[in-house]
Structures are given as structure tokens and as C-alpha cells.
Amino acid sequence: MVFASTKNPIRLIKNKDLEQMKEIWNQHHQFLTSTGRIHTLKSLNNWFENRHIDFHEYYGYYINSVLLGFIIIRNPKDSLWIKMLAVEIGFQSQGVGRALLNFIITKSEKKQKYTECLIDNIKALNFFMTFGFKIVKFDSEYNEYTLQYE
Ligand SMILES: CC(C)(COP(=O)(O)OP(=O)(O)OC[C@H]1O[C@@H](n2cnc3c(N)ncnc32)[C@H](O)[C@@H]1OP(=O)(O)O)[C@@H](O)C(=O)NCCC(=O)NCCS
Question: Which of 48, 92, 111, 130 is the most exposed place for a label (fewest CB within 10 A)?
């Protein structure tokens, strides 16, 4: 990995980082929600605040305070859902996505872990399946698979 020498690059995302998060989100908006929502700083701020009360946690991968990618999980008591994972376009294929996913998997070894992925997001499907996620459900309303980590 290119950034292997950086100590603990993953930490919780803070409000002050939302401008950077918005940029990465909007690069990949068509993959992150079923509606393809594009964010302004204000709408992302609202979204960020509201989701905290619903067991959501937000982690970012940073090099020198620059956000290169993020992972958002929903983490209630009995299961863990990877809701979103996105890496800055210019830094893809350099291990950032792998590091973020590994961080979550390691931190919650005992829980059942799931993610959802739109059926035409072949890149991400391959990525998750490389990690050991398996398709367990198809939702025709949202055109997305549920995958479970085994
Ligand atoms: C999916 C995504 C997060 C992967 O992040 P990344 O930093 O580019 O991936 P990594 O460099 O960590 O790759 C990790 C492994 O996955 C594999 N991989 C990465 N991209 C892949 C692809 N397009 N197809 C197949 N395998 C892939 C690589 O083989 C790599 O393995 P290696 O480390 O042994 O070489 C990134 O492409 C992204 O942001 N996509 C857009 C947003 C999205 O679709 N998110 C998922 C839905 S929420």
C-alpha cells in the first residue's frame, strides 16, 4: 500500500471535514444512495447530524488532514451494516478502500456484517466479493443486492 508508513490514518470524521467529505460523496453520488443524491455542504451537515442518532458512525482515511476516503456504518447492538464506502477518485486502487473495510471488519469481529450494493455497480460488487462478502438477497424495488460477510 502506498500509504503504509502513515500511522493510524483512520479516525472519526469531524464536522470540519464535511467539505472534503462532500467532494468525495459527489464524485460517487450515483453509487451511494438509490436516489443518487448530490449534497451541498448544508444538506450533508443535516444528514450527518440526523444519522448520528440512528447508530451511524463515520470514519475517514486521512493523510496529513486530507480526507482520501470514508466509510459509514450503521452499528446497532446485534449487527453491523456498511452503508457507504467511497474513495477520492485520484487515490483509488491504492489500498484506501481495503484499509477502511479492514478497519471495520477487525473492529467488530463478532458481529454479523452486511452491506448493500446497486446491481450495476460491478466494481464495488467485485471489491466486496474479493473481501469475502456473498450475495444473500436481491431487492427489486431498489435494484440492489444485500451482501453478507462470511
Ligand atoms: C469500491 C472502492 C471503495 C474501492 O476502493 P479502492 O481504494 O479503490 O480499493 P483498494 O485499492 O483498497 O482495493 C482493494 C482490493 O480490491 C480489489 N479491487 C479494487 N477495485 C476493484 C475493482 N474495480 N474490481 C475488482 N477488484 C477491485 C483490488 O484487487 C484490491 O486488492 P489488492 O489490494 O490485493 O490489489 C472505490 O472504487 C470507490 O470509491 N468506488 C465508488 C463508490 C462505491 O461504489 N462504493 C461502494 C458502494 S457504497
Answer: 130
